[in-house]
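My current task is to audit a protein record that another person submitted. I have pasted the whole thing underneath without changing anything:
***
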Amino acid sequence: MDAQRKVLLVDDDEAPLGSAAARLRVEGYDALLVSDSQSAIARLDAFEPDLIVVGLRLDGLDGIVLFGEIFKRNPFLPVIILTQQGAMPDSVDTIRQGSYEFMEKPCVVDDLVERVSNLLQTGCDCSVEVKAEMVEAWRSEIISRSPAMDELLQQAKLVADSGATVLIQSESGTGKELLARALHKASSRNGGPFNAVNCSAIHENLLESELFGHVKGAFTGATNDHKGLLQAADGGTLFLDEVGDMPLGVQAKLLRSLEEREIRPVGSIRSMPFDVRIIAATNRDLEAAVEQGEFREDLYYRLKVISLELPPLRERREDIPMLANAFLEEFARMNNRSARRFSREAMDALVSADFPGNVRQLRNVVQQVVALSAAHVIPGALVKRAIKGDSGDLLSLAEEKERFERNYLIRVMKISNGNVSHAARLAKRNRTEFYKLLGRYELNPQEFRSAS
């Protein structure tokens, strides 16, 4: 047995696992015992455990955040979860990913040590299907661990290779194009092109040319033949985003092309065959649009051969920690910032928010806090302001005052190079009061010294 194998034990009541930690050390393991999720998260990178034993209560945000951080660092890290007799925490059913095993409390120390030893020697076989699914490249860009998304992706994989037209209906910002790309990657057409067009962003005349192409002289400015997206995507997939905003004239021509499997470029008298799989998406209620005469009924049913619906972010909150941390790394890297992490209050604020703009809004919020944060730990107050500001609401006088005060403290700490006494003198405040202000806004003097 390798004496360097490390075991992290997490329990809010340290007594039950204290004996287990001591026994593991006798057996030659490097065992570390902590009492809460935040302490565990703080030690994940430095301690780099080979296995984690979790005995604390998992319901609520603490459990979601802890397992989000574990999964982010190593999806296959073995975890033993200690549960009360006959009880299975709801959040465990929600997580449904990773190499998890369960033992009932109170557990016998010998049994726990034996389970740790077996897992470290043989690995955990309880999530073989999950592991196989997670390494599939077709869905690698979709960050999720929610049951709702898992069910949707299973449906998507079943229909991916059917060649049938798919209609994705969901709110704005949920990731419709990501799902369309995943469908393309999972299909036999993955060697062909994936083209996308936003039907609401292009004028009717230009949209027709963009889709079907045009010949030289078809209209003013048509100085050359132009291959449309339907022809350019031959052998692959064409994604029609916001198809509900497609003009009626273009709808009629698209319907005819889909039925005949031929396209006629603008200004041409000749048609040509094409072989393209259509995936359409909309945030509109197309049935209502049909009733109002804004969308052709025959095209609606032609597109809705298979219908998939992406759940909004508020219905899969367990995905928020993973998404937020992924965006945090992305924007820190883009802005040449050192590693950042969310404070507990900040992550709680993110998980609790409704995000009417869904994943797109979450991404905007994270981008904003990375740009505005001077500290390595992003405080809850900054996240709350970003969420409120992104919704377009006017901040209250108290909130504006807090924003000014925090920005002022950051400026003073930068000027003083993290020296609290110097900063307090500049702010004309006594040192004790100044320390309290820094604590209120979760500002660490050391981070300003290292930043310089």
